[in-house]
Amino acid sequence: MQKLRKHILILLCLLLLSLGIGTPIQATEAKNDLAPLQSVSAYELIAAMNVLRMSNGLPALIEHPIINAVAQGTAQIMADGLLSWHIGDVKGRLAAAGYGGGGTVFATENFAVAGDSATIDQIMLMWDDYDHMRPATQPYYCHVGAGTAKASNGMTYFILQAAYVSGVPCEAVPPGSVTPIPGQTPIVPGIITPVKLVEPDENGNYLHIVMPGQSFWAIAVAYGVTIKDILLWNNLPESYVLQAGDELLIAGPNSRALVTPTPMGNVILTTPDSQGRIVHVVQAYQNLSKIGEAYGVAVNRLVELNGITVETPLQVGQRLLIKGPDQTPTPSPVPLTPLQKLTPAADGKYYHVVTEGQTLVWIAGLYGISTADLMTWNYLNASSVIFPGDRLLLQVTPPATNTPTLAPATETPLPSATPSPSPTSTRLYLPTSTATETSAALSEAERPNNWLLILAVAAIGAAVFLVINSQKSEKKPK
CA 80 to CA 99: how far, in whole Å? Predict the structure, then answer.
């Protein structure tokens, strides 16, 4: 019998181990099937700047590991502090990190802040001015580095730095510099052909033939339009890969056969509707500052009207409320007090005509005066009796009737536009119901194991029953 009990206990242990009973159930996190949007990389920043530089007839900037490290550190510092300005002295930071080996360093720095949906086209257009284009237009810059960092508000900071050492040729390695790490070869595009504007045709449009090394964004920058415009005019999908020899139809500023696109970033004012409401549809390369400046509305007011924040990335096609409808609120009549309802008699004085059930105390309370004053004005005392129809003198001055102040019309924020699957759509977030859905999914997954739990409980009960019976049988006298 001892052997039987031992076998039963071993069987129970094996059953418990196979079912995992007694082991805490670890709820697994639901996997996010939505792949995160890929942001612009540091490599793309350097390659794009070199494309523009070489299209200007200049040699490509050489990627330098020290500048890469400083640019990455700068991006992280700015992202951690949510800064909206340069941290200063870029050449001093590069020299302190060892760039130039003690020589005189000159450097410039570009930065941009954008969401995950930002494209290299948009970032390069943010830098489309003289100061930001120095790395692409000034021949004396030699080396380049870039870095990116994600901020706590979901935005990404992009940093590009270009530098040179005074008196040191670009082909030479600056004294004290480090050897590039394998895989970090200079980012030099292959075949680069500058984008030259063609002559417009009789309709004011351009027919641009793509040359080797030309990209959509470089062509768009050259002609002052957007990539979306070029795709639309040529019936091309967003996934189209540009090929050398492609013919692109581009509308010119005086186009007569195509709808002239809005100049990049410019805001075309929307006229008010019949109710005075102004709703602006966001176009490419527009932000709250540009939109507010065009309409003469403060950014804080736009944020308030549309229920967003200053950091909220705008979507192409999003409708922004600029001005609510012109509404003249109907003034609510203010109830007149008994004093305001008094009308002077022929003698210019005010009287109250007593009606059934009224007393001196009640009449005094009606007009907010003291009972003593009311009796004094009418030569009465506490024992006096008044009758319906009596006229009681009121030596009062009725207050002026209040004119209601019209409250300003309130505007209801417009609903945010639904993100489109275009490259300008906003970042992807997990739905707010993720936790509930995950819990439900785990519950469904656990249901097939319920019969195993029931089987385990039954087995334990049977084992206990056998053990008890065996003990009883041992205790019986033989």
Answer: 25
Q: Domains of the chain, with CATH numbers?
A: 42-165 (3.40.33.10), 278-323 (3.10.350.10), 350-394 (3.10.350.10)
How many other β-carbons are positioned within 10 Å of the β-carbon of residue 273? 10
Tens digits of residue pLDDT in 347-399: 888 999 999 888 999 999 998 899 999 999 999 988 888 899 998 999 888 87
**Would you say 132 and 110 are in contact if contact means Cβ atoms under 8 Å apart?**
yes
Determine phi and psi for 206, rounding to 5 degrees. -110, 145
What is the per-residue pLDDT across 74-94, written as a single tens digit (0 to 9) for each? 999 999 999 988 888 999 999
What are the C-alpha distances in Å from 58 to residues 146, 326, 361?
A: 19, 57, 100
What is the residue whose two structure tokens read 């006298």? 477
**Cα–Cα distance list, 272 to 277, 279, 298, 323, 324 (Å):** 5, 8, 18, 8, 9
* 3-class DSSP state of 454: helix
| pLDDT score of 66 more than 90 | yes
Amino acid of residue 60:
A
Q: Which amino acid is at 226?
A: T
Interhelix angle 42-55/65-81, rounded to 10 degrees, is 120
- DSSP E strand stretches across 166-304: 205-209, 247-251, 278-281
- Cα–Cα distance, 314 to 297 (Å, whole number): 17
